[in-house]
Amino acid sequence: MKIVNGNFLNNVKGYTAAGVCAGFKKSGKKDLALIFSECSAVSAATFTTNKAKAACVLINMENIKNETTRAIITNSGQANACTGYQGYEDAVNITKLVSNELNIQPQEVLQASTGVIGIPIPMDKMEIGIKNICSSLSIEGGEDASNSILTTDTVKKVVSVNVEIDGKKVGISGMAKGSGMINPNMATMLSYIITDANISKDMLNSILKESIENSYNMISVDGDTSTNDMVLSMANGMAENNLIEKKDEKYFILKEAIDYVNTELSKKIARDGEGATKLFETIVVGANTILDAKKCAKAVVSSNLVKCAIFGSDANWGRVICALGYSGADFDPYKVDLYFKSAKGEVQVAREGMLIDYSETLAKEILDEEYITIFVDLNSGESEATSWGCDLTYKYVEINGEYRT
Q1: What is the sign, positive or negative, of the torsion defined by CA atoms of 136, 141, 143, 146?
Q2: Which of 147, 302, 327, 403 is the most exposed, having the fewest neighbouring CB atoms within 10 Å of its CB?
């Protein structure tokens, strides 16, 4: 696998993209993005578990069943969630407007919206924006597209890799947005994974479903699961490798690459948490089961008390033990060993669930770094899991206290 630097889509064949300003944001920044496959592609998706699903999610849950997909359109500024029947009709009309401009079927259009909940999309601006963006598609347009989907994000999030399958170069590129309302159980989090691999719809779906369990579903910024979050993937076959239609060596080569893209995008989302200054990961080993390991790891990065301690560089290890204890995992708290690690070194702060003598000075130096690892050994089994989160700062409250204004 080769990591590729550059704009979204530069390493995949048969795709174009664009990002334009349609007037959805008061800031005047680009706020409408489009990804288009020049030929028929198969697609797969995962969607939020929130019962109050946005209109775009409901439309996509139907359109993803179509055998082919050609386009993904995203507006930023209004979530079109909790907007009732009219919001749903607007979402339907968006697919029709895009399909008319691109000469494809409405069922071949997937869509996403992100922004303030309860605010309908201004369809007069959307209609003009769609005409504009469909005439602006290009390979270089991936740069504008990756910026147009952002809301409170401070940076764009793009990861691209190449692999070789059947002697053919296969490209995989992903772009995402997400900064707040992040606690995916498949957060507001949007991610698009595009590849030119030749793969069946069933196998692409299998890869995506498995991949999100160890990537997006293992991050947390603030514990809120959005109405709009989704991961969408398209594969158009233009790499011309032999069709991947079973779980063979080719399948696992592609899966490893997609796993990498999703994991790196997840870490970028966690690091860009609203107001965040640090990214921290929690590695849990020695669990009885994978499920126990995941419950423990996710509980730690989701704990507001742990996140505050990370912000303050306070080695308050008792908060970690506390989070493990309410995670629902099966373990013995009097077997737990706990360490803090970073580029400044490593310090063990608890043994067998109790305080040990350690250097508070070293612990603070370790926690002052921007990338920190909380290492937990449950000493109960052979399973392990990793999760990612960010610190909780004063800025988070400021951003969300004034989100609409």
Answers
A1: positive
A2: 403
Identify the three-state secondary structure at position 174.
Answer: strand
For 74, 96, 126, the CA distances from 24, given in Å and listed in that order, are 11, 19, 8
The CATH-assigned architecture of domain 279-401 is Roll (3.10)
Q: According to CATH, what is the number of the domain 2-271?
A: 3.60.70.12
Rounded Cα distance, 89 and 365, in Å:
55
Instruction: Return the axis-axis angle of helices 317-326 and 304-311, rounded to nearest 10°.
Output: 160
pLDDT digits (tens, 9 = 90+) for 129-176: 999 999 999 999 999 999 999 877 778 899 999 999 999 999 999 999
Residue 17 host element (H or E): strand 15-20
pTM of the model: 0.85
Beta-bridge mates of residue 205:
none
pLDDT in tens, 96-111: 999 999 999 999 999 9
Catalytic residue, from 74, 188, 227, 393: name it.
188
CA–CA dist 319, 297 (Å, integer) = 13
Alpha carbons 190 and 178: distance in angstroms, whole number: 7
Range name among 90-104, 105-119, 216-230, 326-340 with the lowest pLDDT average? 216-230
Using pLDDT thresholds of 50, 70 and 90, give the confidence band for residue 221: low
Binding site for substrate: residue ranges? 151, 177, 188, 274, 400, 405
Domain ranges across the chain = 2-271, 279-401
